[in-house]
């Protein structure tokens, strides 16, 4: 069984993950998807809730587990990795807002600290 952990703070990152997974996975295969949304103190308060709703609807055929956490994204994502021990981590290059560009600090930190495959999803 393969476990995927989607770390998200926005609907844009979650939608990109859904696109990525829907084209690569068969719902009949044995795998788990866990979507962890972190309420970032610097982002609008509803973003995390909207992100998990997108995971539930866009990935419904895969029956993802969803969690919403409070705190700094890096700390909460690392804690989720420890708890779920995923085979792959799916992240966005940045928080997914219109004013974001390039690879953000959380993504850079995860790429240097996580000892498993990290998929950086392209955002539209």
UniProtKB/TrEMBL annotation:
It comes from the Archaea. This is UspA domain-containing protein. It comes from Haloarcula vallismortis ATCC 29715.
């Amino acid at each position: 069984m393969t476990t995927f952990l989607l770390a998200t703070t926005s609907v844009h990152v979650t939608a990109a993950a859904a696109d990525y997974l829907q084209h690569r996975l068969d719902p009949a295969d044995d795998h788990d998807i866990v979507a962890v949304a972190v309420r970032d103190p610097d982002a609008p308060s509803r973003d995390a809730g909207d992100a998990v709703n997108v995971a539930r609807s866009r990935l419904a055929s895969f029956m993802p587990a969803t969690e919403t956490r409070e705190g700094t994204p890096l700390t909460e994502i690392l804690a989720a990795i420890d708890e779920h021990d995923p085979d792959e981590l799916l992240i966005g290059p940045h928080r997914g807002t219109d004013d974001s560009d390039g690879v953000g600090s959380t993504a850079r930190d995860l790429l240097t600290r996580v000892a498993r495959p990290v998929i950086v999803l392209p955002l539209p």
